[in-house]
Prior knowledge:
Layout: E1 2-10, E2 13-21, E3 28-34, H1 42-53, E4 57-60, H2 75-87, H3 89-104, E5 109-119, H4 121-131, E6 138-142, E7 159-165, H5 173-185, E8 190-195, E9 208-209, E10 214-215, H6 218-235
Amino acid sequence: MITQTIDYEDGSRLLEGYLAYHDTGKAKPAVLIAHDWSGRREFACKAAEKIADMGYVGFALDMYGKGIFGADGDTEKNGALMSPFAKDRTLLRRRINVALHTVRQLPQVDASKIAAMGYCFGGMCVLELARSGADVLGVISIHGIFAPGNISNEEMTAKVLCLHGHDDPMVPPEQVLALENELTTAEVDWQIHVYGGTMHAFTNPKANNPDFGTVYKELAAQRAYQSVANFLQELF
Length: 236
């Protein structure tokens, strides 16, 4: 596996992505990975490597800026990093579309076959990527935030897969129904897989805070990644 960091820019903001792929001499489909609220740390980079092992190019994008990271369990710092994007969806959409443009230019990538997936805050990011009308085949929200912003959507062409824990306190059932209605009205090809007895952050082995609602669940994680593999195979 080849891995490398790639610097790119959104205006004056320097960003640093993490690229992972197996070199076969041919351009491959690519998957953007949007990180959780703690930034583009090891978890997002390992996800890019997981995508590379599926036979694609994985790119862990950077929403915050090069060298800007939160920390496990630091809800105050992580929340402060995420908050500007949750409040300003125009900023969020621009930042993730810059990552898409960056990946589309890479020689390792088949520019006609790109998808995106994201965890927690990153799930919000990839849903906003779809809402922006971006030219991607599909997006995957993994224990992501569903609540939309207050800006209008462009025509959505991406297929949508959401992998959600029923007991996630950050996304109550009424928000799940609201997203279903939003995507149905927009005539999107969508799926929402809901795992019973499952809380937020269920794919992250370091998540172990039931009082906050973040708990790793191995079986749900296994099911989720099988769904990811199936979805990507369908797209590509």
